[in-house]
Specification:
Length: 163
């Protein structure tokens, strides 16, 4: 902060008190904190991608642990994306009050699609689930779709059985 010439004794007194209090703080920040700070080009930490649970060996607990941590981070990110979409929809709903059905249709569609995708991946797993139970859910869903067709479209057509 540039020093301005004080007009009277009171201003000079307060300027000297400010310099006494602010000086050590500025010195520590400029000579210790800023030179030792790491400069990230992103504003959040980027984790490297690790092998997923289907790429791990059965007897490799380290790989399982890393896959589980990555799964939990991915779940947090997906949940946060849902929160952002829900907030956008609620704000659009409030802002576009009488015409919100028409004007917020696209945001509502995106939110509904993201909610369905989130539930497909993480829903019905219970409170204490891990990457292995999510992988088993995915496997069971794929087997169901192979046998009966896509989930939600009803059973596949009955084959005519001729006796």
């Amino acid at each position: 902060m540039p020093e301005v010439e004080a007009r009277n004794v009171v201003e000079r007194f307060f300027n000297s008190v400010r310099r006494m209090l602010e000086g050590p703080v500025v010195w520590v920040r400029e000579s210790i904190v800023e030179p030792n700070q790491q400069h990230y080009p992103w504003y959040h930490q980027k984790f490297r991608r690790v092998p997923t649970i289907d790429e791990c060996y059965v007897d490799d607990p380290v790989c399982y642990y890393e896959a589980n941590c990555q799964y939990k981070r991915d779940r947090q990110v997906d949940t946060e994306i849902l929160t952002i979409l829900r907030t956008r929809f609620e704000e659009c709903h409030m802002y576009e009050a009488p015409d919100h059905f028409e004007r917020c249709k696209e945001i509502k569609r995106q939110y509904d699609e993201a909610t369905a995708n989130w539930f497909t991946k993480y829903g019905d797993l219970g409170a204490y689930h891990n990457v292995r139970s999510a992988y088993m859910k995915q496997k069971h869903r794929m087997l169901w779709e192979r046998r009966h067709g896509p989930v939600g479209e009803g059973l596949k057509a009955e084959e005519n059985i001729e006796a």
